Amino acid sequence: MKRKQLIPGLLALGICALAADAALAEQGVLRTRGANGGAVAARGPNGGAIVSGRGVQQNSDGSVTGASGTVLRTPQGSVAGRASTTTRGADGSLTHSGGFAASGQKGNVQSSGSLAVDADGTASGARSTTATSATTGTSYQGSTTVDPVTGTVTHTGTCYTDSGEAVACAK
Fold first, then answer.
1. How far apart are CA 87 and CA 139, in angstroms?
2. What is the rounded CA–CA span in Å between residue 124 and residue 114?
3. 20/154 Cα distance (integer angstroms)
4. Relative to the CA of 138, which of 34, 55, 154, 157 has its CA 20 to 30 Å away?
5. 49 lies in some domain
6. Domain membership flag for residue 30
7. Other C-beta atoms within 10 Å of 52: how many?
8. What are the residues whose beta carbons fall under 8 Å from the beta carbon of 164, sequence distance 6 or more?
């Protein structure tokens, strides 16, 4: 199974777990395990729920890929999810990518990023984050990068009013 197929597979597993028989869901927890991973789904007494899955796969090129994901809903209706994939190459290289998103009464946030480390130890990576307040409409957009040549980490961030005007971010 290729890395790009693992995340959809985990999400499909989570959807199947959520769609499980109502009698099982009433009992609170549903677990499934396989040779390369597993998933768990749980439902709380007040309407909250969580589904989480993970898997590991040996690839034909000698690398190993692991992926995981989680989605949840709070009793108040907020939702959040995260997913990540990591591959360790046969040559010792490493790639990782992941992200999360959450949305609720106070606003929403999304973030995603990646990191790559070559077999010689050279690292590069980036992360982007956006957050918006549901109350005020103000938002933040930021990014962080790692320069592969110098190893320098650089962060930039900008805050915006509800009308889109750039303003200084509160500290």
1. 33
2. 8
3. 46
4. 154
5. yes
6. yes
7. 19
8. none
- CB neighbour burial string for 92-106, b if at least 16 within 10 angstroms, e if fewer: ebbbbbbbbbbbeee
**Is there a domain that residue 101 lies in?**
no
Instruction: Give the number of domains in the chain.
Output: 1
Question: How is residue 151 written in tokens?
Answer: 């190893």
pTM over 0.85: no
* β partners of residue 98: 84, 113
Return all residues near 61 (Cβ < 8 A) that are at least 6 apart. 89, 90
d(CA 121, CA 10): 30
What is the structure's pLDDT at 2?
44
Domain that residue 61 falls in: 1-76
Q: Give me the residue label for tokens 């290729």.
A: 2
Tokens describing residue 159: 């805050």
Interatomic CA distance for residues 6 and 32, integer angstroms: 16
The candidate with the shortest Cα–Cα distance to 77, out of 111, 102, 98, 59, is: 102
Contact predicate 76/102, CB 8 Å? no
Check: CB of residue 11 under 8 Å from CB of residue 18: no
Phi and psi angles of residue 7, each rounded to the nearest 5 degrees, phi first = -60, -50
- Convert the pLDDT of each residue in 4-20 to its tens digit: 444 455 455 454 444 44
- The CA R_g of the chain, rounded to the nearest whole Å, is 19
Q: Is residue 124 part of a domain?
A: no
